[in-house]
Amino acid sequence: MQRVLELQQVKRWEEEDIYRVGWRNIRDGVMAQFALYETEIVDMPQVFLPFATDAKGQTLYEKVAESKFLLGFGQEEP
């Protein structure tokens, strides 16, 4: 958050401000996802599945990014 404030050339901020703004952004994002769920636009797994992790701690997003977002041919690999 501090880096973002620097890039936006915010002149006056304190460490406590950075903490509050960071958490507020996270809260707003989660609340937006819940709003999609509550209006039945998405299912709960659709909202949070990208953050699910495997046994190694790697997220689904990281796995897909490793493959350059190519999903393959739909066949099980040997």
What are the SSEs and their pairings?
Blueprint: H1 2-7, H2 15-38, H3 44-48, H4 60-66
Description:
- The chain has 78 residues and is mostly helical.
- It folds into 2 domains: 1-39; 42-70, no CATH class.
- The protein is built from 4 helices and no strands.
- The longest helix has 24 residues, at 15-38.
- The radius of gyration is 18 Å and the shape is extended.
Keywords:
single chain, 78 residues, mainly alpha, 54% helix
Provide a concise account of the structure shown.
The protein is mainly alpha-helical and about 80 residues long. The protein contains four helices and no strands.
- The average pLDDT value, as a whole number, equals 86
Number of helices: 4
The secondary-structure class comes to: mainly alpha
Number of domains in the coordinates?
A: 2
Q: Give the CA-CA distance, first to last residue.
A: 43 Å
Main β-sheet, in a few words?
none
- How big is the Rg? 18 Å
Helix content: 40-55%
What's the total count of β strands? 0
**Helix/strand order, N-terminal first:** HHHH
Contiguous uncertain segments of 5+ residues: none
Shape: extended
Q: Please state roughly what percent of the residues sit in beta strands, choosing from under 5%, 5-15%, 15-25%, 25-35%, 35-45% or over 45%.
A: under 5%
